[in-house]
Each structure stands twice: as C-alpha cells, then as structure tokens.
Amino acid sequence: SECECSPDPLIPGAMYCCNVTDINKAIACASNGTSWRYIHMRNVTVRELVLNVSNRYIKTLLSVSFTDGSIQKISTSFTRFSSPVCFNISNNNISEIEPRALKELRNLKSLDISHNNLSTIPSMGANLTLDIRGNSGMLCKSLLESLKEGIKFMDETSTFCLTNRTFNWFDSTDFIPLPQLLLSQRIQNDCPTNCTCALERLNFDLNNTDRKTFTAQVDCSGLGLMDFPEHLPPDTVTLNVSNNNITSLKALIGKSYSTVHRLYADNNQITSLSDLEGTDFISRFTVFSIRWNKLKTIQTYQFRSSLDLGSYMFLEGNPMTCDCTAAKNLKNWLLSKKAQVFDHDMIYCEGNTHLSKVVQIQESKLCQSQHDWTDYIYYLIATEIILLIALIGKVSYDYWVFKTAGYLPWPANKMPKLPCDCLCE
C-alpha cells in the first residue's frame, strides 16, 4: 500500500510498520481515526529519534517497538503521563540515549535495549525488567547503578558488561557476566573499611557443573593497621596485609579466616609464629609471606605436616638468633626446604656485622661448650682403665719377683716402709 503501516489483521488496536523514515507520517497514514494501543515498526531509518516530536501518537500506546532499524540516537524524552508499559528498541545500532529520555515512563514494566551499541543505561524507574544483551560496550559501572535502583535483568547468564579504567575491581578489561558482577557487589559490601576487594577466580564442581563458587582476594596493605581486619568477605582465599604495624597472627584463628590460603604479611612488626601452632592455616596455606618482620626464631616442628609440594614460604629480612639451636634445627630445616622456602639463602643472623647467612652458620663453632664434655669423657675413662690395668700388672709383677728372687724390683724397693707392711712379711 501507499502507507508504511497497516493494521494487524489478528490483534485489535495493533499496527505493524516497515521501512519507516517519518514516524508521525507513517502512523497518520494508516490511522483513519483508529485508536492504536500496540505498534511495531521494523527497519526505521532515522539518525535521531526525537521522542517529544513523535509523542503525538506513541504517548497513548501500551506497547511500542522499534526494531531491526538504523537509529543512532534517542534524544529528548517522553512527556509526563505517557502510557507505554513495554518499550522495545532492540537491534538498531543505537549508540546514545538521552539520560532522562525514559524517566517519565511511570508505567513501564519491560524495556528491551538489546543488541545496540550502548555503553550506559538511561535513568528509569524501579521495578522493571531490562534486557541489555548484545551491547558489547556496556559498562559494569552503569549496571551496578541500575542494580541499586532495583532493576531486574532478563537472562542474567547471557548478560555481560565491560570493565573500564575507573572500574578497578578487576585486573583486566574483559567481559564480566552479570552473576559474577552481582557477587562482586556482595563482596564489596563485606569488604573491610579502606581495603580493596575483588573476585579472584571461578570454581566448578566436577560432580555438578551447574554449581559454581567464586573466591575473593582482599588487599589491606599500607593502611597503618595494628591488627588484622575483624571480618573478611566469604570465601576469601588471598589476603594482603603488608606494610602495616601488625604484631600478632592470632586473628588467623578466627572463622572469617578459615578459607585463607595465601597470606602476604610482609613489613610488619610480627615477632612470633607461635600463635599459629595447632591452627588449620598451618596445614592448608599455599603461600605464606612474612618477610621483613621481627621474627628471631622459627618453630620448625610446626611445619612438619605442611610445606609440601605446592606450598611456599618467604622469610627474608627477619633478624634470626644464630645460636646452637639454630645451627642444629633451623639451618637444617631451611636446607631441606629449599624448594618451598625460595629465599632460604637470604635469611641473616641478628646483629651480625658480617651478615652471616643462617644456612652458613657452623654447628662446631656455636655448640663448642657442649662438645668438650661429650667428646673427651670417653678418652678420660679409657685412660683411667689403662692406668688401672697397668697398676694391677705392676703389683702382680713385683709380687712374683719378690716370691721368686727374694727382693723387690724398682721402684718398690725404694719406697719407705709403712706400718701395714708387717702384715705382708
């Protein structure tokens, strides 16, 4: 027909249009006084869709659809008390929607802006369903703002957003699925004050591939903390509390730390590892970095069941006490754990002007006083036994000579007589 629009033969009050270049003209051509409630226009070709100009007809519609066309921009806004409940502008290559263009759609329940070139979501009321699939440049920051407004998204698993430079929860500018973004929001809500929290990785259950869990990483470094954060987000695996003033590791006993596998606590004031004795952390950690603290000794027996293949510990910069115990235990332990303690040859003795490495201290020099007794007592006993045997032999020889020759050999004949000698005559 001459008109670009025609009534739908099956649905009363519905109009279908194709190849439209002037919306008002196309609707007017097919109206003939009919009150339209639903309209669907395909292949609309306009550079800019000016809503207040086209509002003459579409403000009274319940459902408005502009699909599969070429529309670069939607400008101005609906007037107040506009009626549309459903608004579909999908697959039009739209790159910009005026921020308040849809703000006056008070009855809007469903909005489809999928498969366009949008990077942000326009302002809308709450309690509606939104479809943004297929917008490859959609920013996660805009999605989060919409989530806070209570907007629900259609097909969450197929909805992605793009991280940008200012949205620094993630390390790369990749597409983030909406479920992951929702979880990251919960992680942010539980994040300790002034710390930075982020998703670390997605885990799959091999027995149930639909079951997915996310782990978190928390960075509280350089905040001047005196102690560990009281609470961590659920499933926190990596914690960085380096460059603070923490003095104790007691917090690792808490339930909030039950999932921590990688701990970075470099450059603090920690003086002892005894707080970790008997804790689960000792047996489960994969990375334990406690460099440049104030440790003077390591209770090596604590790590008998840990520090296996895949577990690593870093101890550089701690001023170790190099005594006999260190020479016997710590040195040998470090040498036996070279593959797990990467900086084993960078651990030095406390107050040593020559910077002796713990792995180079000599047991013979540090444990000399103990060796004096244990090494020479056996020589002393052997000497006493030899002298006793020689004495018995000499006395026996003197007695034999006296009985056979009638005189005492030297030196027995030179010895003065004693009162008891008469008993032997």
From TrEMBL:
<dbReference type="GO" id="GO:0005886">
    <property type="term" value="C:plasma membrane"/>
</dbReference>
<dbReference type="Pfam" id="PF13855">
    <property type="entry name" value="LRR_8"/>
</dbReference>
<keyword id="KW-0433">Leucine-rich repeat</keyword>
<keyword id="KW-1133">Transmembrane helix</keyword>
<feature type="domain" description="LRRNT">
    <location>
        <begin position="190"/>
        <end position="238"/>
    </location>
</feature>
<dbReference type="InterPro" id="IPR032675">
    <property type="entry name" value="LRR_dom_sf"/>
</dbReference>
<dbReference type="GO" id="GO:0034220">
    <property type="term" value="P:monoatomic ion transmembrane transport"/>
</dbReference>
<keyword id="KW-0813">Transport</keyword>
<keyword id="KW-0812">Transmembrane</keyword>
<protein>
    <submittedName>
        <fullName>AAEL011387-PA</fullName>
    </submittedName>
</protein>
<dbReference type="InterPro" id="IPR051432">
    <property type="entry name" value="KCNMA1_auxiliary"/>
</dbReference>
<keyword id="KW-0732">Signal</keyword>
<keyword id="KW-0407">Ion channel</keyword>
<keyword id="KW-1015">Disulfide bond</keyword>
<keyword id="KW-0472">Membrane</keyword>
<keyword id="KW-1003">Cell membrane</keyword>
<dbReference type="InterPro" id="IPR001611">
    <property type="entry name" value="Leu-rich_rpt"/>
</dbReference>
<keyword id="KW-0406">Ion transport</keyword>
<dbReference type="InterPro" id="IPR000372">
    <property type="entry name" value="LRRNT"/>
</dbReference>
